[in-house]
Amino acid sequence: MTTIAFHILSAETPQATLLHLCKNIAQAYDAGKRVFAYATDQTLTHAIDEQLWQFEITRFIPHAIMNVDSKWQSSPIHLGWDLPQSGNYDFLFNLTQNTVQNMRSFKNIVEIVPSQEDWLSAARERYRVYRAAGHTLQNQDFRTDVTA
Length: 148
Known about the structure:
By secondary structure, this protein is α/β, with parallel strands linked by helices. It contains 3 helices and 7 strands, in the order βαβαββββαβ.
């Protein structure tokens, strides 16, 4: 069964949310994990792509936009605004307010939740849906952690 973690961010800016995401993607990549970052739209997907290119000046985190970059399938990190229909991912980072439907493709889901009320409300609803389905849930509150 998929394990789902909710990361509640202080995220005063979209840039802070992207930085939190990139830190988590880098940690997963360093551990040899396959990742899918699920964005709300093309604009956010391209912003994630750009942030990963700029994340750390001394390293490269291989990534590709699903169905856009010509060699995206060979990359360990996939970005996209549509969930893949299949695949074997260790992590899905969800930057949308949507409940993930195709959980079989993901061992772990990390719900990235900015602290704005509409995001918190949508996250509460997803939490209820996931709990009712019997998934293992975790909460991590980064609102007081300035390093997150």
